[in-house]
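Suppose you are handed a protein chain with no further information: no name, no annotation, nothing but its sequence. What can you learn? This example shows the usual starting point.
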Amino acid sequence: MRTEVGPLTGFTVGITAARRREEFGAALERRGASVMYGPAIQIVQVEDDESLREVTLGCLTQPPDVVVATTGIGFRGWIEAADGWGLGEELLACLGTATLLARGPKARGAMRTAGLKGEWSPASESSTEVLEKLLEMDLRGRRVAIQQHGEPLPDVVEALEAVGATVIEVQVYRWQPPVDLAPLEKLCRAVADRLVDAVTFTSAPAAASFLQTAVQLGIQAPMLVAMQHDVKVLAVGPVTAAPLDRAGLPVVQPQRARLGALVREIADELPRSAARHLVAAGQRLEIRGHGLLVDECFVALPPTGMALLNRLTAHPGQVISRADLGSCMPGGSGDEHAVEMAIGRLRTALGNPRIIQTLVKRGYRVAYDPEFGTTGRY
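A reasonable first move is to predict its three-dimensional structure. Written in structure tokens, the prediction is:
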């Protein structure tokens, strides 16, 4: 029976997100992907935290002149916490007298839902542009309240204090490592071993936690090499990408910092840049992460079969010795008999034994048709 092929069929995508990970994973699976979850963080609400209460009371005593909302969930959490203390209406009245800035549409929507009007928001959804907007104002002697997005913003605070502002840092929630580290550690190792085709990030703290976990596991170097060359790195936006950029990693981002846009970007990026195309024995092959399309019909392969196919197609048409193929099999200890058996199983899976040719006493080669090329569309 013919299996329906989606744009991500054959690819494995790692998800580090904590929030909305099921929604994210389901969207990728609908497009054919296999998903590996490794939440890199957990969100801890601090509405009962005494420091947040003190900051809120300070705003009521000395109202801020400017209020910056960086996330919808964070701004809503602040208002909800104030409601819990019986201070909700008083806080909203206080904030309503301030100049309002929002980093993106979710933060802007949270402000509007709370009944606050007149907020400004950059089209880029960039914290840098928000800071530029703030620095255009005369902030000498003025109070600027910044609802943080889970991690401190020392550069922003320093820049505002340098022009004479008093900065009020409103920490509504914080990030910390997940209680169960096993899925995260498994995903880090899978990236280092190139067992996933892409790894995704939807928050800067998750990116930082992922990189730090690799350091703790002692696999930082191989993981970074894998992410620089073989495992695609995708982030929802520039704020999320910042820790990855600092690590020297090439990061793919959608034009709009939205989860749906990230899903579409993944569905475009992996078939375009992580698949290899060739024609062998008159059939079109598209090699993907853990399988291939043979004339548009997907064939899933076990690790041994995939390792052999990748080696045979790395230089299409080249003869590969049995010893060479044995060394690339999982464990690297395949003898000639094991290679022959594995090649037989691979031929059966491909459905056309002529795709892989035997050259007596020399080895095997893919029956490559060079006039069709090896990359791009047919």
